[in-house]
């Protein structure tokens, strides 16, 4: 896996940005429709993986004689708990080509495919994944990747028992910044193609907007951490986004945009971060939390400005009680003051934090690590766009009950209600 990450780049090659299949089975669909959707999703998944994996990594094409050892599954079957489906073919004359990933447990196979898709989407993979690289991934991926809380007896206390306030990170946790920004940039390019002033004519429509958005976001992650550590920089996220955009446009590949986008145009583009769409589970999940009795405070804790957080909440009709922003708290996460000041303003002092009365939900493990140091309980939510380049993030995160470092691991916001409900 280290080899894969080391070979990563900003993009290029056949795997520079395949679209990830979306979940199948929309609510209310008939069984036949769901089956058809599942088949379509499976076909899309296969198509994406065919772009990511080299032919030898996808399958072994050689036939296996009856008396020959099962070399096809020798790597995978070296562990007792990973008996592959190929073992069942020992009495057959030959074995057709079989996907290497299909030889491991289904849950683990899905986790491996999702990891490879995220790495491809973010531009980490340069060229197709070789067989040796895939074996490296198979070796290092955990056997299981829990997606929600494990079953617990009614006598076991919830890790979120006593929580009276849940703070939420914004970018990536409540909102799908990637799709929102990419779509907005592409729409802006289409407007430019139509002849609107301030755009790049037809040239900007040829830009890889996914890569552009990711670099913009990466610059934000670097600069906010620098400023949180004491380096000089804008305390207003709009100004910071503009600074990063200006720096990004200095790259040669964006010279057409640099010429086309005036200072006013660039400021307008920074406002698209105020109109991010929420993940589909965000609003219903918050509404589930809103129904918990006794009630729980729900607030955002974000590096964004107060105006940005309000704009996003209004845009998505999110039921939140308060917003704690970078400009309000005078810093950026992971500065400890961001967590302690937000808690203090809600009326939760150090003693209350130590009692576990405040939790932070975020899709970034480093954010949760910083919060835990200030006494907050921690809820990690897996999001496809987040912690992609973080070895200890994503599917590697485990709850304390599974030997990890966070209190709870979830996939949907609504799962929190089950943990905090008494």
Automatic annotation (TrEMBL):
Keywords: Hydrolase
InterPro entries, A to Z: HAD-like_sf, HAD_sf, PDCD5-like, PDCD5-like_sf, PGP-like_dom2, S-2-haloacid_dehalogenase
Pfam family, one: dsDNA_bind
UniProt-recorded Gene Ontology molecular function terms: DNA binding; hydrolase activity
Region feature (Disordered): 1-47
SUPFAM superfamilies in alphabetical order: Double-stranded DNA-binding domain, HAD-like
Family: Belongs to the PDCD5 family.
The protein, known as: HAD-like domain-containing protein
Biological source species: Rhodotorula diobovata
């Amino acid at each position: 896996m280290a080899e894969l990450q080391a070979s990563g780049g900003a993009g290029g090659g056949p795997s520079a940005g395949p679209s990830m299949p979306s979940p199948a089975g929309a609510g209310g669909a008939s069984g036949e429709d769901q089956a058809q959707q599942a088949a379509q999703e499976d076909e899309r998944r296969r198509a994406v993986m065919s772009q990511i994996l080299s032919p030898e990594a996808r399958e072994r094409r050689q036939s296996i004689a009856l008396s020959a050892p099962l070399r096809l599954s020798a790597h995978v079957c070296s562990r007792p708990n990973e008996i592959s489906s190929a073992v069942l073919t020992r009495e057959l004359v030959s074995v057709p080509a079989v996907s290497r990933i299909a030889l491991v447990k289904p849950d683990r196979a899905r986790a491996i495919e999702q990891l490879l898709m995220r790495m491809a989407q973010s531009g980490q993979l340069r060229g197709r994944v070789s067989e040796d690289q895939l074996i490296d991934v198979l070796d290092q991926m955990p056997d299981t990747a829990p997606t929600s809380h494990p079953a617990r007896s009614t006598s076991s206390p919830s890790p979120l028992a006593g929580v009276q306030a849940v703070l939420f990170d914004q970018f990536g946790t409540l909102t799908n910044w990637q799709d929102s920004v990419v779509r907005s940039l592409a729409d802006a390019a289409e407007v430019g193609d139509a002849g609107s002033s301030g755009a790049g004519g037809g040239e900007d429509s040829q830009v890889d907007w996914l890569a552009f958005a990711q670099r913009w976001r990466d610059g934000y992650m670097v600069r906010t951490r620098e400023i949180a550590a004491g380096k000089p920089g804008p305390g207003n996220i709009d100004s910071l986004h503009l600074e990063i955009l200006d720096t990004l446009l200095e790259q040669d590949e964006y010279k057409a945009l640099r010429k086309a986008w005036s200072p006013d145009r660039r400021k307008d583009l920074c406002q698209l971060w105020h109109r991010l769409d929420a993940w589909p589970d965000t609003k219903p999940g918050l509404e589930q939390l809103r129904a918990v009795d006794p009630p729980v405070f729900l607030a955002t804790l974000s590096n964004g400005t107060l105006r940005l957080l309000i704009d996003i909440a209004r845009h998505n009709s999110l039921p939140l009680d308060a917003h704690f922003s970078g400009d309000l708290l005078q810093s950026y996460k992971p500065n400890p003051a961001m967590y302690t000041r937000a808690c203090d303003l809600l009326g939760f002092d150090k003693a209350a934090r130590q009692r576990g009365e405040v939790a932070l939900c975020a899709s970034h493990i480093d954010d949760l690590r910083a919060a835990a140091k200030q006494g907050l309980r921690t809820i990690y939510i897996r999001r496809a766009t987040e912690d992609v380049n973080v070895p200890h993030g994503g599917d590697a995160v485990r709850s304390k009950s599974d030997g990890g470092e966070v209190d709870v691991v979830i996939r949907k916001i609504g799962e929190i209600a089950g943990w905090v409900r008494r």
